[in-house]
Amino acid sequence: TCGFVLPKPNFSGFSEGEFGGKKIVSIDSADIDLSDIPLESENKESALPEEDVKTLCEWIKSTLGDTKVKEVSAGKRLVESPAAALNADGLTPQMRAMLKAFNPEGTLPNPAINFEINPKSELIKNLNDLRKNNESLAKLVLDQIYDNAMLSAGLLENPQNMVKRLNELMAKIK
Length: 174
Known about the structure:
Layout: E1 18-19, E2 22-23, H1 50-64, E3 71-74, E4 83-87, H2 93-102, E5 113-117, H3 122-133, H4 135-153, H5 159-171
Parallel strand pairs: 3-5
Antiparallel strand pairs: 1-2, 4-5
Helix pairs in contact: 3-4, 4-5
């Protein structure tokens, strides 16, 4: 079993290959299966309870809406990151950039994103508490977490909104 996975550039559009009997898929693919890779720690005590995770995922899905996320779930691949934006439509960031370069005047549809949260992340636990106590601030924080994940995935197209929101969040610090 391979202990690490790197993004696989895909400019060709051809089907995925195999190596050593294992299918080669990009790590940012929404349908990647990491069940055979042992996790360093299975400390479930520090994670949000499953019922809270389910409720939080539903709130995130309804708050972000169908135009931003296809589905929201608790991720098993996340260790340090609070969230990940996973490519669900197969159109990689590199392919999106190429299509945009070929047709600068044209518009691409929003990427189909599966949004995974890390129930062990302090930021996600704090978001869960915040949505119960201050929903307007929780929405700002959620939008920032979403844009952070999109930026990390190479899918954020308009960073100006992210910077404006980050400034708004910092202004609320007292």
